[in-house]
């Protein structure tokens, strides 16, 4: 099986994304480890009403974010199929459990139904794309598995884009509430669109290791 090749700029972007993913993963892991003192000021009251759901969502989300990035590394996929398979199981379990907790929490968003709907859809799509990827690999449909997992990780990566976008939106609006309503959609919709664009653009030219033709 041929190894995937990335350009120098591609590896640079991959490294930057990795640093962001691992940094946010470590930040999210503070919630179940440290507890309420780690809760963000603007969301503290809401989080305190459902602390265990927050711990599940943040803890498993941190695992999915970190492990998922490792899974995307073509060198690791090529080097050890066994490691890739076990990490994949950890990723799928974490993504689905984190998504389930996120779906439970979404209706309780203090900023109203717009944010609740955005985060709720993010949770549902995360679980669906991850489950589709799992079903595909169990059926030995490797190309479909990789495409679904790219979509799944694009949604998991919303944890990173949210933390980049939210401070900028708060500065733009001067208020947390409208910023949070917007970021509930902005943190994941562009990610998913970018994943679909990449799959359609690169699918016909990708070596089989990266997923074959796009769906």
UniProtKB/TrEMBL annotation:
The entry's keywords: Membrane, Transmembrane, Transmembrane helix
Membrane-traversing stretches: 52-70, 90-108, 114-137, 149-173, 179-199
InterPro entries, alphabetized: DUF2306_membrane (IPR018750)
Keyword Transmembrane: yes
Keyword Transmembrane: yes
Entry protein name: DUF2306 domain-containing protein
Source species of the chain: Edaphosphingomonas haloaromaticamans
């Amino acid at each position: 099986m041929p190894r995937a090749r990335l350009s120098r700029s591609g590896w640079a972007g991959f490294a930057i994304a990795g640093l962001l993913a691992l940094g946010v993963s470590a930040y999210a892991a503070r919630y179940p480890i440290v507890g309420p003192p780690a809760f963000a000021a603007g969301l503290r009251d809401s989080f305190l009403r459902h602390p265990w759901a927050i711990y599940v969502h943040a803890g498993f989300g941190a695992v999915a974010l970190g492990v998922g990035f490792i899974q995307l590394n073509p060198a690791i996929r090529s080097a050890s199929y066994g490691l890739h398979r076990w990490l994949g199981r950890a990723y799928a379990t974490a993504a689905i459990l984190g998504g389930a907790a996120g779906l439970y929490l979404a209706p309780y968003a203090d900023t109203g139904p717009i944010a609740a709907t955005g985060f709720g859809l993010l949770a549902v799509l995360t679980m669906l794309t991850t489950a589709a990827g799992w079903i595909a690999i169990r059926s030995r449909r490797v190309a479909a598995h990789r495409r679904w997992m790219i979509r799944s990780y694009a949604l998991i990566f919303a944890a990173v884009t949210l933390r980049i976008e939210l401070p900028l939106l708060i500065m733009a609006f001067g208020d947390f509430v409208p910023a949070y309503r917007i970021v509930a959609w902005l943190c994941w919709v562009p990610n998913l669109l970018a994943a679909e664009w990449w799959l359609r653009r690169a699918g016909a030219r990708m070596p089989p290791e990266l997923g074959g033709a796009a769906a």
